[in-house]
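INFO  loader      accepted 1 record
INFO  loader      residues=449
INFO  predictor   begin
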Amino acid sequence: MGARTDAWGLPVTGDADAVALWDAAVDDYLAFDGPDRVVALVEQAPDLAVGHALLALAAMDGEAEADADVEIAEAERLAADASEREHAFVAAMKESLGQPMWALDRVWGPYLADHPTDLLARFTLMFAVLFAFREDGGAEAQRLVREGRRLNGAHPLVQSMLAMAAQERGELDEAQAYAAEVLADRPGYIPAGHVTAHVHFERGDHQDGLAWLTRWVRDQVRPGGPYLPHLSWHAGLHELALDDRAAVLRRLVELAGPDGDENWYLSNGASYAWRLKLAGLVPAGEDPSGGLLGERAGAVAESPPFLFVGWHAALGLACAGDVPGLRAMARRFEDATGDEVAPGGPEVLPPLAGALADLLEDRPGPAADAVARVTAHGKRLGGSRAQREVLEDTLLAALVRAGRTEQAGSLLQERLDRRPSASDSVRLAALQLPLARSSPDPSATSLPG
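INFO  predictor   done
INFO  writer      dumping tokens
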């Protein structure tokens, strides 16, 4: 059989057909198109060590119905007769299975240094860096992407990663150009379409952005794909910005109802439900999830795998009105130390959980001060600017409830200067009314909690 090389010139021990299947499976995985080809790879080329290792990763991510431990054990067995690179890849994947995302840079950094053209490893490492609450996270991620551009050329994932980085810097024309270049060649490439959704949102191009996203998903994205729930969340942000209340409430059932996607339940469902509660579109005591938001958030809040998930768990507890759970979460992380604690947890989760509890108990002044300290961490909180905006919404609600309408108005104006929003314009107009300026009553604005 012997060792051949894959699309990146890396050794793969298998025949030509097996290596072609490997390349196709990796391409699909990096295109956010689900694990189908990964599963098919293992079925059709069962002697490929790296195939079993990739299936273990898909199982760990919750995308594939497989036993990660069984797959990595089989990968280890097969790698004994494979190349050094394959052995190293399997070893890194095995170590990854026991590590939280924020610690994966310790696993994949050394591997990538030895095998720098491995785009799968580069992608995994970049996300580890971005979600590790690192001061240099943004700069290091950009370095990794630009190095990938030099080593892997104009691969659609590299171009999409460059687009996403440009979007986060506010370079929207550059981001759009990178994404459009990819979509011209591969119209259904999800990473590029995802960036395009971000660009529309950050430009405030909500009407056309919603129409584009709806049409693109319908015509180009495979039905049932694993990234569809997040694309639906993006559509919901457009509907919320357009103040389309009927559409927003329909979307809420999809994202946070009992049938919401488990892998996205907190990052989509909790953040969306909390936005709607802040906007007064969902009554404070109503739970669109039928209890699932609080249940799933509570399970994650005990020991979140990384900070981004942790603060979304706090939002889930807030959606459920679980003040005792929020207070317990704040206490749990106040003095938390050790390698088992996600970086940023002690700095972010106690003030945020405490602030959400304060909001629920009608103490908006302290809540506003605490959320302001949290939002000051910016990109270190993880996720995209669009995802972090829910924390901005929380700060706005707290400021309005505390009667600090001038501060709230300044924050809203900064957002409107960045991108138009019908709902934000309504909020700002309400804050500028004499009644709103003289009364801390949240019903005087469009930001009730």
